[in-house]
């Protein structure tokens, strides 16, 4: 795809995301309608659902022949990654959204024939939009974002999801012990923003495709590694234990996790 | 102390803190001089030290007969809490300051004869100043802050420091299991801000007096409980396992920690 076409799509996606943010902020004035999906830790609200419909409606109008993978199920049943595939997470970090009214993100990704094209992570409450891809480069609020330093595990902070730390999975206590310290923000999007900006050196969590779709494109475009915790490529249609990391931190972490997957 | 005198002191402290912020932001333009205190996880920089000197100098000029307890040791050797005692943490969350250039706080507290008078937590990078005390009430950037809801552990997020989670101390995995989820921001000041604003229901960590001096005053003024993890009052001259929590969350957590201290 040529750059003019990328820029045109990019302009549209940003318009959708700004509309999304207005919608979310408006809805936050009213009482949320919260329900559980698979467990009391896995929440969905009316705003997740309505915002996904809003975004999918924009995508369908713009690009009727695309496939859409949406967290809340208003997209398509996707069996393959052929053609244009949009990945939509209307509110990433719904628990934070419900309990904190902060620290959550709206995310969109575009893949074509399985290849990364454009990714978007929008920190709604701070009004910070991270956008771009392998061709356009990566931007924070339309300013180019420099590549984060290739910092080793020993010299950087690491984010690990709560359940993985609590249950001491994947030999992760040993990984964290090697790092400069543990952090946990409770949203894949917010955590990946901390990687893009060099504030942490790795993020490890069990993630679904809409959790990592946009982050993978942005992180890889800035020279970060995005794989499973045992170093395999991610399958865009499957959930897995995912590691986003600087190249050095990835090399430090892989042997510690080793066969503990 | 009458309100006019409190307001006068409050105005001065805010001036010092704004000067501190200017100083810190300026220093962040240059290379930091980082060294270890007790371990590689316990850092201090030239900015911590110089900012403590700046604040202590302001306090000495304003109130020459006060005792001052400062993290970096430029205050007094304090043996008792008689008279005016200022507690100064020039940069709380030094690891975040060094590794993230974000998520750290400058904190000041004033106790008189061991009684809470005024507390200040300044989130430097977001320019959010939390201030006040039992008489004045609590403010965020000079706007009154409402009391956070008295939410139970089951319905709220909890922050626990990395080492306590990793080493499964104090039966904390069971505490976190009861909550809505684990978060970890890496700075007592930032974590207590999340309590003041109702974004988490408890924060548990091993803390030194300068880590909790300001937070204790602000949190108690908003109806939150601030004690040791086994429910004893804090000693302003000692380090301890500290729990800041809503009253309901404290009642939920105390029996789970029980005799595991």
Automatic annotation (TrEMBL), chains A, B:
Binding site for Mg(2+): 71, 89, 91-92, 211
Cofactor: Mg(2+)
Gene Ontology molecular function, alphabetical: inositol monophosphate 1-phosphatase activity; metal ion binding
Keyword terms of this UniProt record: Hydrolase, Magnesium, Metal-binding
Domain of life: Bacteria
Membrane spanning residue stretches: none
GO biological process: inositol metabolic process; signal transduction
Name of the protein: Fructose-1 6-bisphosphatase
Annotated organism of origin: Secundilactobacillus odoratitofui DSM 19909 = JCM 15043
């Amino acid at each position: 795809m040529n750059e003019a076409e990328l820029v045109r799509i990019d302009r549209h996606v940003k318009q959708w995301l700004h509309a999304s943010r207005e919608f979310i902020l408006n809805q936050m004035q009213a009482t949320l309608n919260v329900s559980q999906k698979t467990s009391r830790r896995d929440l969905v609200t009316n705003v997740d659902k309505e915002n996904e419909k809003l975004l999918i409606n924009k995508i369908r109008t713009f690009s009727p022949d695309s496939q859409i993978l949406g967290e809340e199920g208003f997209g398509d049943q996707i069996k393959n990654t052929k053609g244009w595939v949009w990945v939509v997470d209307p509110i990433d970090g719904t628990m934070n959204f419900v309990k904190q009214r902060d620290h959550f993100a709206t995310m969109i990704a575009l893949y074509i024939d399985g290849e990364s094209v454009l990714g978007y992570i929008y920190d709604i409450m701070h009004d910070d939009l991270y956008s771009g891809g392998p061709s356009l480069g990566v931007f924070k609020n339309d300013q180019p974002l420099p590549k984060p330093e290739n910092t080793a595990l020993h010299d950087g902070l690491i984010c690990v999801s709560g359940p993985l730390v609590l249950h001491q999975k994947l030999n992760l206590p040993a990984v964290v012990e090697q790092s400069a310290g543990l952090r946990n923000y409770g949203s894949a999007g917010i955590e990946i923003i901390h990687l893009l900006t060099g504030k942490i050196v790795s993020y490890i969590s069990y993630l679904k495709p809409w959790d990592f779709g946009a982050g993978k494109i942005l992180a890889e475009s800035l020279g970060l590694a995005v794989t499973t915790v045992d170093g395999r490529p991610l399958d865009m249609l499957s959930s897995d234990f995912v590691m986003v990391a600087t190249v050095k931190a990835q090399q430090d972490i892989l042997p510690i996790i080793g066969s503990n997957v």
